[in-house]
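User: What would this chain look like folded?
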Amino acid sequence: MSEYLVAAARWRGQNHGAELGSPPKMLMKAASHSLSALALGHQADLAILRAEYDPAPAPPSPPRGRTTSGLPPAPPSPPPTGPAPGH
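Assistant: Here's the prediction, encoded as structure tokens.
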């Protein structure tokens, strides 16, 4: 839309030396305002997307005094091999 308004203002060079308040100047001002509105909408859209998709905060650290390696418990020891007791 803004490109159309600028093109209309520049048609046949009418914007050169045009007085303030003349149709070419008003068209240029309208183009500027439409670009400002689009920029504002773009900023709002980015703010909404960032609020939705920014990474979640880091998980809380473990309480002090407790030492955990973050690894699962060791597996149980294998059964003994060899003859069964009492035989």
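DSSP finds two helices and no strands in the chain. If you want, I can go into more detail on any region.
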